[in-house]
UniProtKB/TrEMBL annotation:
<keyword id="KW-0723">Serine/threonine-protein kinase</keyword>
<keyword id="KW-0808">Transferase</keyword>
<dbReference type="GO" id="GO:0004674">
    <property type="term" value="F:protein serine/threonine kinase activity"/>
</dbReference>
<dbReference type="Pfam" id="PF13360">
    <property type="entry name" value="PQQ_2"/>
</dbReference>
<dbReference type="InterPro" id="IPR011047">
    <property type="entry name" value="Quinoprotein_ADH-like_sf"/>
</dbReference>
<feature type="domain" description="Pyrrolo-quinoline quinone repeat">
    <location>
        <begin position="83"/>
        <end position="204"/>
    </location>
</feature>
<dbReference type="InterPro" id="IPR002372">
    <property type="entry name" value="PQQ_rpt_dom"/>
</dbReference>
<keyword id="KW-0418">Kinase</keyword>
<dbReference type="InterPro" id="IPR015943">
    <property type="entry name" value="WD40/YVTN_repeat-like_dom_sf"/>
</dbReference>
<protein>
    <submittedName>
        <fullName>Probable serine/threonine protein kinase related protein</fullName>
    </submittedName>
</protein>
C-alpha cells in the first residue's frame, strides 16, 4: 500500500531507487497507461498485481456537457476497483464497490476513492470512503462485502490509508446504529476481521475524519495506532488532541493514553489535520493555524515535552541572476499555512511544504531551529537537453480526465502546486523524501543533507505543463515507483 509495509510512509531498501524521471521526456518511464476515470487513492502492489480505485466512468454524451467553470461534475456513491498487470499496466479485472453516500469526483480535498487498498499477498481489501468495503482474492472473486452510512456529509475529507495488521483491517467509521455508548455523529477506529468482514472492536476514542492515523511500535515492540481529533468546518469529534490505541492482545483497541493540548481550542484543533507521526520516544502535533508551533509528547506517558515555534528561522530565496540561494538570518513570517498532509519526520527533523508559498520547511526537533528554502514551481523539459527549473511561475492545470472531460466537481483544484487542497502524503525511501504536489511535480529531498540548499535532488513531472492534477501518494516496490494522476498511472524505473 502507499503507506508502506509498516504503514508509516517509510521504507528502507538496498534496491536502486529512481530519483529522477519525466513523462514529458520519457525519462525513466517504464510504462504509462491512461485510466478510464480519475481517482485520488494510493496504490497497493503485490507481485505482478497492482490494485487501485477510480471513479465510475461517465458516459461520453453526459461528460461532454460538463462545464469546467462551474462546480458541477461527476457524482457517485460507488467506486471501481481495478487490478492491473505490473508488467505493462493492462487491466486484468475490475469490480464495483458499492457505497451509500454519493459525492463529487475529484474534489480538492479527496473523494470516494481516497482510501488505498491493502493486501496480504493472497487477498486484497478495498474501502470506498462513501461507505463500502469488500474483500477479493487475486482472481477477482468476492469473499465478502459490507456497507455503512458515513457521517458528516463529507466522508472523503481524509487521506486515511487502510491499515492491515495481522487479521485486523482498521478503518475510520461512525458507530453502529444500535450503539448507544458512542456519539452517532462522530467517527471511531473500527477493527474488522479481514477473513469475514465482521466488526471485532471499536475504539472508545473518536477519530477526526480529516485525520491520518499512523501504525508503529513502541520500544518494546508493542504495536499501536496514533489517532487525532480536530479540524476545520465544525469537525465534531472531541476532545481535540491525540490518543495512542493499543494493538496488543492484552490492550486491544484500548487507549494507552489520551492527550489534549493546552491553550485555545480553536488554535489547537489544526493538529488533527496532519499526518500523525510518532517514534519510540515521541508523538508530534501541530498547534495553531496561522501562527504555527510544533509539539512533542512522550510516547509512553502522553505528557507534553516541548513546544517550538515554526514562524522564525533562516530563509533561503533563490536569486535567478546569481543562480544561488540568498540567506536571510532570523526571518519571521507574519502568517504561515502548511499543507495539511505534507508533513513527515525523518530522524531529528520535521519536513513539510507551505501552503500558498513555494517553500519547504525543515524543523530541527531537539533545538527548534527552522529553515525555509524556496522551491522551483515548474520544470522546463526539452528532450535531449538539461532540465531547467523555473521559479515563481503562475501555473494552473486543465482539470480534465484522460478522455478530455471536465468531470471534477470542484474548480478550485485548478490552482498551482501550493494551492489550498489536500496533497498526497509524502514518502520516505531510505534518506530520500518524496513530496508529490497537485501539478504532478514530485520534489525529491535528501533528508540527510547538512546544508539545506543542497538537499533538493530533483523535480520530476507526470506530464505536460498545465495538464496534470493529482492528490496521490506514490508507492514504491522493488526498485520501481508507481504514481497516478487524474489521467493515468506511471511506472517509474531507473534506466527505462
Amino acid at each position: 500500500m502507499s503507506g508502506g509495509p509498516g504503514g508509516n510512509w517509510s521504507v528502507d531498501t538496498e534496491d536502486s531507487i529512481p530519483l529522477q524521471w519525466s513523462v514529458r521526456k520519457s525519462q525513466n518511464i517504464k510504462w504509462r497507461v491512461e485510466l478510464p476515470e480519475g481517482g485520488q487513492g494510493g496504490i497497493a502492489i503485490w507481485g505482478d498485481n497492482i490494485f487501485l480505485c477510480i471513479n465510475p466512468p461517465i458516459p461520453d454524451a453526459e461528460a461532454a456537457k460538463m462545464d469546467p467553470k462551474k462546480k458541477k461534475g461527476g457524482m457517485s456513491a460507488d467506486v471501481v476497483f481495478l487490478c492491473l498487470d505490473r508488467k505493462d499496466g493492462k487491466t486484468l479485472w475490475q469490480r464495483e464497490i458499492k457505497g451509500l453516500m454519493p459525492v463529487g469526483y475529484n474534489y480538492s480535498f479527496s473523494d470516494s476513492t481516497s482510501i488505498c487498498p491493502v493486501t496480504d499477498g493472497k487477498y486484497v481489501w478495498t474501502i470506498n470512503a462513501s461507505g463500502g468495503m469488500a474483500c477479493f482474492d487475486f482472481e477477482g472473486k468476492e469473499l465478502w462485502s459490507r456497507t455503512w452510512m458515513p457521517t458528516g456529509g463529507r466522508p472523503f475529507n481524509k487521506q486515511f490509508d487502510s491499515i492491515l495488521y495481522g487479521d485486523l483491517l482498521l478503518n475510520v467509521e461512525p458507530p453502529d446504529e444500535e450503539d448507544k455508548t458512542r456519539n452517532a455523529l462522530w467517527n471511531y477506529l473500527r477493527a474488522i476481521d479481514k477473513k469475514s468482514g465482521k466488526t471485532l472492536w471499536i475504539s472508545k476514542e473518536a477519530v477526526g475524519h480529516y485525520n491520518t492515523p499512523i501504525l508503529n511500535s513502541l520500544s518494546n515492540g508493542s504495536p499501536a495506532v496514533l489517532i487525532g481529533r480536530g479540524g476545520a468546518h465544525g469537525v465534531p469529534e472531541k476532545a481535540v488532541g491525540m490518543s495512542l490505541i493499543s494493538l496488543t492482545k492484552k490492550g486491544l483497541g484500548k487507549a494507552i493514553w489520551n492527550w489534549e493540548p493546552a491553550g485555545d481550542h480553536k488554535e489547537n484543533r489544526w493538529g488533527g489535520l496532519a499526518n500523525m507521526h510518532w517514534d519510540v520516544s515521541k508523538a508530534y502535533w501541530f498547534v495553531g493555524k496561522d501562527k504555527l508551533f510544533y509539539t512533542s509528547v512522550d510516547i509512553n506517558s502522553g505528557k507534553e515535552l516541548s513546544r517550538s515555534s515554526l514562524m522564525q528561522g533562516d530563509r533561503y530565496d533563490y536569486d535567478e541572476k546569481k543562480q544561488q540561494y540568498i540567506k536571510t538570518l532570523g526571518f519571521s513570517f507574519d502568517k504561515q499555512e502548511r499543507q495539511p498532509y505534507t508533513s513527515i519526520v525523518s530522524g531529528e527533523y520535521l519536513f513539510y511544504m507551505m501552503r500558498y508559498e513555494p517553500f519547504l520547511v525543515r524543523h530541527h526537533i531537539p533545538t527548534g531551529k527552522n529553515e525555509f528554502i524556496e522551491l522551483p514551481t515548474e520544470v522546463h523539459c526539452k528532450k535531449g537537453k538539461a532540465e531547467q527549473w523555473l521559479w515563481r511561475t503562475n501555473e494552473k492545470n486543465d482539470g480534465l480526465n484522460s478522455q478530455g472531460y471536465a468531470v471534477s466537481c470542484d474548480n478550485r483544484g485548478r490552482g498551482d502546486n501550493f494551492q489550498k487542497c489536500f496533497p498526497g502524503s509524502p514518502t520516505k525511501i531510505n534518506q530520500y523524501l518524496f513530496f508529490t504536489l497537485p501539478l504532478g511535480l514530485t520534489y525529491v529531498v535528501d533528508s540527510s543533507a547538512s546544508d539545506i540548499t543542497q538537499s533538493l535532488v530533483s523535480v520530476n513531472d507526470l506530464g505536460p505543463r498545465e495538464q496534470v492534477f493529482t492528490l496521490n501518494s506514490l508507492t514504491y516496490a522493488k526498485g520501481e515507483i508507481f504514481l497516478r494522476d487524474l489521467k493515468g498511472i506511471s511506472c517509474i524505473s531507473n534506466g527505462k
